[in-house]
Amino acid sequence: MECFLTCDKMNGVIHQITVSFATKCGLEQLLSSEKKENKELNVVSSLGIKYPTLRDNHLHSGEIWLDGKRADDGAEGLWRIYDNLYDFGDFVNLHPGGKDWLRLTKGTDITEAFEVHHLSISPNRLLPKHFVRKAKKPRNSPFTFEENGFYKTLKKKIHEKLKTVPEKPANREWRISHALSHHLYTNTVNDLEISAVEPFLQYLPTEKNLFVRYVSWLYSPMVYAFLYIGHFVRTLIQSAINGEGFTWDILLPFSVPALMFFITRESALFCAIMFLWIIITSSIQFGLVGLNAAHHHPDIFHDGDASRKDITGSHFLVLTNFGDHALHHLFPTIDHGLLEYLYPVFLEICEQFGIEWKLSSQLELVKGQFRQLAKVTPNVIPPKPITRID
Ligand code: HEM
């Protein structure tokens, strides 16, 4: 089990990578022991993650995801890092990365967030001051971040390498659904950007009806079209549920049609239609890129599989198509413009740990995204070591 946890700790973070020796690690046993935890979508976590409380809540909002984590993480109302509980109450407003991170995550396990958002060891030095007690429950996460393991070794090297790269200008719900959920638990049962498009789009390999498997190929652009509007409505509902009062920032998006109306002197109806047109086309583009760029392909790890591709080389394509994605997940606080300089170090550490990195064409990823929607059977045999297919 230790072997499974160690070698697979990055599965949720870098789905482009295949770790070749996961077979030895008792996957089948895990699959069967987790099966009884299945809920609505019969999803099995091959990483041993408990089926997340509130995963099937229809709102699929970041706040609900955090409530589920509070129920599952054994943080006892405090902040959990590994098996230690901390009280950062008096540090929340002093946190150099901003107060939201700690305010949002109170009562949860922040081990992954803590590890991937800091490159230096200075945050570690602050921990003893806030220590309260040991946690009672074991951690509900397969990621161990061992000192001499893949991630910590890579992190030290990247930290060193960053001192030599050319200087370039660097740049609340999104914080939860993307930074705290999707980055840290990519393609697992705990990835809110997977559960949020269910039941319409079901990417995890599990029982699905034919409609969801194949008709989704046709209706998925409709789902993309309503991502923005759906998100806005969900935020309104969540704020109402939380009893949050009205704040003016909620009206910010409407400044665009208002300006169109005052500047162009067209009718209100025309401006509203044009605004909807902009929102919907942008939402389709976002869905197309987000769901077809780097995450969903039968060869990429999805929870349930035994084990677990990327645009690189062009700044424009990288920034508009979510490129350099493996490195972005591993080090989300590093400016995307700097990631290209880090490949030599990344590939060196991959080689050191016997990990292969696979690139594939955009067309193959788009086709793979549809094949993943239709997939119902997890890959129980880990992929063979893979070769580059640019
Ligand atoms: C949910 C957990 C946390 C998240 C998501 C988070 C996120 C961040 C982010 C985004 C930055 C800015 C990094 C940059 O611009 O390069 C940062 C900086 C920092 N954070 Fe956190 N943080 C978390 C918890 C903590 C904790 C628990 C401590 C210490 C007790 C801490 C101490 C620091 C320090 C000292 C910095 C300054 C930069 C550095 O030395 O790395 N953070 N954090």
How does this structure look, described?
The protein has 390 residues and is mostly helical. The chain has a domain at 2-53 and 174-374. Helices cover 45% and strands 4% of the residues. It is built from 17 helices and five strands. The chain has helices at 2-7, 27-35, 62-72, 99-105, 111-117, 122-130, 150-162, 173-182, 192-195, 210-225, 227-241, 255-264, 268-292, 315-320, 325-330, 343-352, 362-374, and strands at residues 17-19, 79-81, 84-86, 131-134, 355-357. It has a three-stranded antiparallel sheet. It has a two-stranded antiparallel ribbon with strand order 1-5. Strand 2 and strand 3 (84-86) form a beta hairpin. Helix 3 (62-72) crosses helix 8 (173-182). The longest helix has 25 residues, at 268-292. The protein is globular, with a radius of gyration of 21 Å. The structure holds protoporphyrin IX containing FE. Protoporphyrin IX containing FE is lined by residues 88, 91, 95-97, 101-102, 105, 110, 113-114, 117-118, 120, 122-123, 126-127, 333. GO terms for molecular function: heme binding; metal ion binding. May play a role in muscle cell metabolism. The chain crosses the membrane at residues 214-233, 245-263, 269-291. One of its GO terms (biological process) is lipid metabolic process. InterPro entries: Cyt_B5-like_heme/steroid-bd (IPR001199), Cyt_B5-like_heme/steroid_sf (IPR036400), Cyt_B5_heme-BS (IPR018506), Cytochrome_b5-related (IPR053100), FA_desaturase_dom (IPR005804).
